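Hey there, shall we discuss this one?
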Amino acid sequence: MRTKFIKWFFIVCLLGSGTVYSALILLLFPFVGRAGRYWLAAQWCRAMVAWMRWLPGVTCSVEGLEHLPAGPSILLCRHESTWETLAFLALFPRRISFVFKEDLLRIPFFGWVLRGLDMVSLNRGSPRQAHQAVTQECAARLAKGDVVVIFPEGTRVPHDAPPRLTSGGIRLACATGAPVVPVVHNAGKVWPAKGWPDRKGHIRVVVGPEFSSRETSQQDLSRAVHDWMKTALLEL
């Protein structure tokens, strides 16, 4: 009974605070620039990471931040839950731009804030047109110095599922020349792919080494990233 209460209290606090804070920062968006909007959104994410330590007792740590290149890069990240989409703005010192499905922009308040953050939305229509549009948008964000975060599996997966990389992120890296940095974590053990956290736990995020996309084939780059992620997941 107590566990169920904690879970639902956390859900109410997360959604409630997100709605209220979104409404407040939307009022400020016209008066601040791109960097200011990102900073405002990151404050709520930091508050949520701190809140999760207390309720429901979810802590986290990040290993390997020193592997992030000084310039723009592409993070190919494991997608196991909602947690990483909330926590990464708080945990990563560099500005990140998620590649996300366009449907999220239609969510009241949250989607409106997301639109103002100048990230990359993916329209899952024609695969060719979607790839071209995303490549152009990601190239624009990379030119601004962003770290572009792509979930190469395309959807949330259980923690024990083997890594499966679609070609989009690797093709983007080869097209733009940006380095690839793989990221794995064990959020799915604490916050299920379909559900909410209902127990205490510690989430480890591991940032892998930089893989150059220059002077290498898509196949070789994909294989190297896949092999690293597969090995790293076994240790989580």
Notes: The CA atoms of residues 1 and 129 lie 50 Å apart.
